[in-house]
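Hi there,

I know you've been waiting on this one. I reran it after we fixed the sequence typo, so this is the corrected version. Both the input and the resulting structure follow.
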Amino acid sequence: MAKAKQAKSAKAAAKTVTIKLIKSPIGFNKNQAAVVQGIGLRKINHAVTLADTPETRGMIFKVRHLVTVSE
């Protein structure tokens, strides 16, 4: 039981990052459109909050010209 509480508190304490789509992926590489979709962004000015992990940071880096990031 104590381990379950520790796991929940660790997830709650995990850092998050908010990503907002500011430019359309139309006209860019198809891989970049797939990354935008994988992040969960649907249309311009749509924002999502994700865990701040190396995987998420890699996706942000791939489409850094299409999104803004706030911590």
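Quick highlight: The mean pLDDT is 90.

Best,
R. S.
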